[in-house]
Amino acid sequence: MTSFTERTKATLRETLLDAAADLLPDRGHQGLRMADVAAKAGVSRQTVYNEFGSKAALTQAVALRVAAEFLDGIRCRFEDAESLLTGIRGAVVYTIEHARENRLIAAALGTEAGEDLLPLLTSRGEPILTASAELAAQQYLALEPRLSPEAAALLAETVVRLSLSHLVLPTHSAAEAAESVLAVLAPAIDQFVHNGVKREGQS
């Protein structure tokens, strides 16, 4: 495949994802029609099927793209952080604030049309959860190298799950949610770091 063909294919895929992302908040997964995605993108319905294979695959691709955008934002927060705790705080605030502003996620959390999108974030959201936790674990180790990989992975998954719970049940502001996450995580981080130093001293 030539570079021109690759660029054309990538542009087509992005155009289809843009069209689906624009339709999903109002229609949900069940109400989304491949023909409408095709019409909005200015292509044939068969082109959409050729690119994604099924409506479920298209919806999942939209969700993964949204997740990738959030992961980039989270990565930037960690890169600018002075410590692990400030990095976690910034990442949680960013995740919750921008998730509430994102049309697709807001629909999944708060509209009738979005009810069938919610599983992409919860029961069927394992690819998103995994990618978020893996990125966070890498950043945790960079900011606090005394953590073991296992501890970093456990802490990262816990933060992701706690952040998700605040999104699904938004009873606090983003800043308040971040502080509650830190209240749970700070003692655990101290314990993991202490144990890591202790093991090194005993070896």
Automatic annotation (TrEMBL):
* Family annotation (InterPro entries): AlkX_C (IPR040611), Homeodomain-like_sf (IPR009057), HTH-type_TetR-like_transc_reg (IPR050109), HTH_TetR (IPR001647)
What keyword terms does UniProt attach to this protein?
DNA-binding, Transcription, Transcription regulation
Q: Which Pfam families match?
A: TetR_C_35, TetR_N
Q: Is the keyword Magnesium assigned to this protein?
A: no
* Start-end of DNA-binding region: 33-52
Q: Which GO terms describe its molecular function?
A: DNA-binding transcription factor activity; transcription cis-regulatory region binding
Residues in HTH tetR-type domain copies: 10-70
Asked if the record carries the keyword Heme, the reply is: no
Q: What PROSITE patterns does the record tag this protein with?
A: HTH_TETR_2
Q: What is this protein called?
A: TetR/AcrR family transcriptional regulator
